[in-house]
Amino acid sequence: MPTLFEKIWSQHVVVDKGNEALLYIDRNLLHDGAFHAFTALAKEGRKVRKPRQQLATADHYVPTRERDKGLASVNDADAREMLRLFDVNGAEHGIRCFGMNDSNQGIVHVVGPETGFTQPGITLTCGDSHTSTHGALGAYAFGIGASQLKQVLATQCLWQKKPKTLRITVDGQLGAGVTGKDVILAIIAKIGTAGATGHVIEYAGSVFRAMAMEGRLTVCNMSIEAGARAGMIAPDDVTFQYLAGREYAPKGAQWDTALEMWRTLPSDGGATFDREVSLDGGAIEPTLTWGTTPEEALPVSAAIPDPASFSDVNKRAHAESALRYMDLKPGTPLTEIKIDRVFIGTCTNGRIADLRAAAAVLKGRKVTVQGWVSPGSTVTKRQAEAEGLHRIFEEAGLEWRASGCSGCAAMNGDFVPAGMRSASTSNRNFEGRQGKGARTHLMSPAMAAAAAVTGRITDVRTLMGGR
Amino acid sequence: MKTFTKLTAVAAPFDMANIDTDKIIPARYLRKLRTADAGYDPWLFYDMRFDADGREKPEFILNQAPWHNTGIIVAAANFGCGSSREGAVYAMMDWGIRAAVAPSFGDIHYANEIQNGMLPAILAEEHCAVLREQLRAKPGSTITIDLEPQTITGPDGKTYQFEIEPVYKERLLKGLDDVGMVLQELPAIEAFEKRHFAKMPWIA
Prior knowledge:
The structure holds 2 protein chains of 2 kinds.
Chain A: H1 4-11, E1 13-16, E2 21-24, E3 27-31, H2 35-43, E4 54-57, H3 77-93, E5 97-98, H4 108-115, E6 123-126, E7 140-143, H5 146-155, E8 157-160, E9 164-171, H6 180-191, E10 199-204, H7 206-209, H8 213-221, E11 230-232, H9 237-243, H10 252-262, E12 275-280, E13 287-289, E14 297-299, H11 313-326, E15 341-345, H12 346-349, H13 352-362, E16 370-374, H14 378-386, H15 389-396, E17 399-400, E18 421-424, E19 439-442, H16 445-454
Parallel strand pairs in A: 3-4, 3-6, 4-5, 6-7, 9-10, 9-12, 10-11, 15-16, 15-18, 16-17, 18-19
Antiparallel strand pairs in A: 1-2, 2-8, 13-14
Chain B: E1 6-13, H1 21-24, H2 46-49, E2 70-74, H3 87-95, E3 99-102, H4 107-115, E4 119-122, H5 125-137, E5 142-146, E6 151-153, E7 159-161, H6 166-174, H7 178-183, H8 186-199
Parallel strand pairs in B: 1-2, 2-3, 3-4
Antiparallel strand pairs in B: 1-5, 5-6, 6-7
């Protein structure tokens, strides 16, 4: 009685050597940071074996301002060269490429699901750790480094050791103002940043069944922050309705064949997992990080913990160092922390539902700090503009920018200045992640919008009356 | 790929758990081309090594004379978690670090080390802690890692057994190239594709 993961795994084993298997990779996504792999491929004189099973989009290095000027809008010479190489590599190898000015450009983990390139039951890789995102559609998707990316390009296969399985069940019903972001932060706070190392997580329970696709994508996206190889959610009608009609989705009779296959994917009733964890969905509050690792997260009603109260010596040492970096004192209520910047977007929280949630809080209000919104894709940007969301952000005082990884990876010139504190919808609060010396608090789009309005960490539920 | 058999080198202790790959190499340096003449070593642990004005921070371990020639890192749990950036391995390798010893590693980083001929040796936290303590007590002392018997010999001569999957050990010992190993299976891959895409032709 196999699990969802085990079904996909066994359907993709080309050669089984017992202690490792040659796994077939159905689809691979590429972004503008993939040049190391292409350089290595060229050096070895190899070709891309299956160009049609690749899709590329520029995201990490693209500027979010003055995009219409093309490469001229890229200030950094190295980044400009990479974006030039991105188009060259795509053309040379016959790979479909959404360049920085393509109307389909976007963050790779937004573009995959949005185009229907990501589908239930497939294996999918990308040279990026947040590839776990795509498991939200019931795919087995995992991040790889440049060398393994080169292998996928050259062979469409990877030697893999079979990971263990971990089921995380969240039952009950989420309260108002509580989103996928809060659920995944609560999970990581519970199991730790290495809590799922070597495991594939399957998220189960009524909370995920009731969650829209955007929330599921947010949850699976941050599986890597718990150390997981991948995060998955069984495909269901929410998944199928989301996929129907998308460009890469099967059509006509093939759609019916696909549906029949996809419906067999969910874990069997008696399936067993190597580990099980469960949380009460009804008890999850809006949650945010206070430290420098995603596990250092607490409900918004809490106060900064005293590291001395941690029994684990490693966690205590980490918390002490985190509080120094974050310039925070034990005992301070989270809602008394002032912020300087707000950033809404990313592969974690840059989808249309995320933008709607932030706009719902900001409508008719003014922000008191600087900040910007970068939609997860250019398609999402157009949709948000059609709905008038951009006007709500701009009238509130936030900048409405083009799509890219932007201030999450801070590789494109968008960053939070040293010593400044940001309310961010991204996925990593590591030291220096949003810029050298930048202090990051991870939270949901609605919570980031609330913080933008008041200038401090705020329980969004206090601003939601009648909204 | 370089082989890894046996290494005796200066080892540096890193006490902090969860050293992420953003720490090993900040994202802003990943755009650099890596060539035979220009490696990634200048960016290794950049924000830990240098202050805002680009001056070396004297308190950072690799800036201290006994550890200038570090070839091994002895770390704590979850070393190399976070981003999939292989630049983290390039930076360590180009600096001259050929092995990391830790109780656990981030999965993607672990694979990246193997792919580049760098050894990720898994050793129980209590033993890592003893090694780190001895390395701090005697700055610049060396440890020896022997891959075939899977042993680490500390500064005091005491030997510990470390863990590594047999398949990864073989790759490191022989310097095997994964692409070559996959292409040996090409007939099986082509047969698989025929069966697989008969079921889902829209993926091909």
